[in-house]
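Predicting holo structure, adenosine-5'-diphosphate bound.
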Amino acid sequence: MRLVLLGAPGAGKGTQATRLVAKHSIVQLSTGDMLRAAVTAGTPLGAQAKEIMNRGELVPDQLVIDLIDQRIGASDAAHGFILDGFPRTVAQARTLDTLLTKRNMKLDAVVELVVDENELLKRVENRVRETLKAGGVVRADDNPESLKTRLDAYRKLTAPVSAYYAQKGDLKQVDGMAPIDDVTLAIDKAIGGRV
Ligand code: ADP
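Done. Tokens:
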């Protein structure tokens, strides 16, 4: 099964992706996680992405396209994958179509978690509080200023991605304001109990 999970920062993509991975034996391909790993490892890619990410802006399309191109063809993704945080621009979505076609692959569904903007702010504040309480390290972009930039980028560049998939008839919207288990059930229903 091949899925795309869309939704604003804090919409719950990571939480739901983890559940889908366990249930369907597929891999989660999160461009945010891959980029953070590159930053931590100090690779040239990480060096290029670090400041852009910290500000809450999007990194250039080509950087994430190269990451995804390598990963969707890897053997651990042969069973299927969930793309989380990609595509984030219409240009990325178009390129994804090309990459999939090249490999004779097709998306089974595109699921969007829909959440009110006020709730997003609360969730990210909560994530910061919980992380601090657990003695963890808060993400460099989980601060009010970068979050505002992330939400602006989402509205301007990523919201049109939903429209792109809606036009193709692939988009399933799920209420991301519901309790976590209900969201999981709604996603199961939206993907039609596939696999
Ligand atoms: P969020 O919680 O904002 O959804 P992510 O972990 O998905 O965060 O991404 C963190 C940051 O990594 C983004 O703000 C952006 O700088 C960069 N990033 C991740 N995925 C992409 C992408 N597909 N295109 C461009 N930039 C990306």
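The first helix runs from residue 13 to 24.
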